[in-house]
Automatic annotation (TrEMBL):
Organism: Baryphthengus martii (Rufous motmot)
GO terms of molecular function: caspase binding; death receptor binding
Protein name from the UniProt record: FADD protein
Cited SUPFAM superfamilies: DEATH domain
Domain Death: 76-158
Alphabetical list of PROSITE patterns matching this protein: DEATH_DOMAIN, DED
Domain (DED) ranges: 1-59
């Protein structure tokens, strides 16, 4: 699988990959695979002649688990919009309060080098993805207040 990703992932980054989990994490971060897009994964599995895994992947998609609307953090979209419109250069301080790692933030900055707002939006989405159902608006408000961004916290509460 690592060999099949050589045109998707840089050589240096690919050399550091030591497990399948690391490979899939990179592919997810680069959005080569996603919950609603498993085409690349299916192609990789077919090319290594793992039809058994292809059928399991198709079954997983057909059962609706991939596109489950309950899995989507709709309730957080409004706070993300408010935060991204009101937090500027100090977005990394906020993300550190939310326990997003430096590596995750660096990857986002690398993916969106000239778009500060998009860096913040993607960081918040990464935080949501990592926390899953534990990602709460109250945590966002607490982190904003911890960064002395009380005006933004008040707007999120509204």
């Amino acid at each position: 699988l690592k060999f099949l990703c050589c045109n998707k992932i840089g050589k240096r980054k690919l050399e550091s990959v030591r497990s399948g989990g690391e490979l899939f994490t990179i592919l997810l971060e680069q959005q080569d695979i996603a919950k609603d897009n498993v085409v690349f994964l299916e192609k990789m599995l077919k090319s290594i002649k793992r039809e058994d895994l292809v059928s399991q992947l198709k079954q997983f998609v057909e059962e609706g688990e991939v596109n489950d609307p309950d899995d989507q953090p709709d309730m957080h979209e409004k706070p993300i919009e408010v935060i991204s419109n009101n937090v500027g250069r100090n977005w990394k301080m906020l993300m550190r309060k939310l326990d997003l790692s430096e590596v995750q933030m660096d990857r986002i900055v690398e993916a969106y080098p000239r778009d500060l707002r998009e860096q913040l939006v993607q960081s918040l989405r990464e935080w949501q993805r990592c926390r899953g159902r534990d990602a709460k608006v109250t945590d966002l408000i607490r982190a904003l207040r911890g960064c002395e961004m009380n005006l933004v916290a008040d707007k999120v509460e509204q």
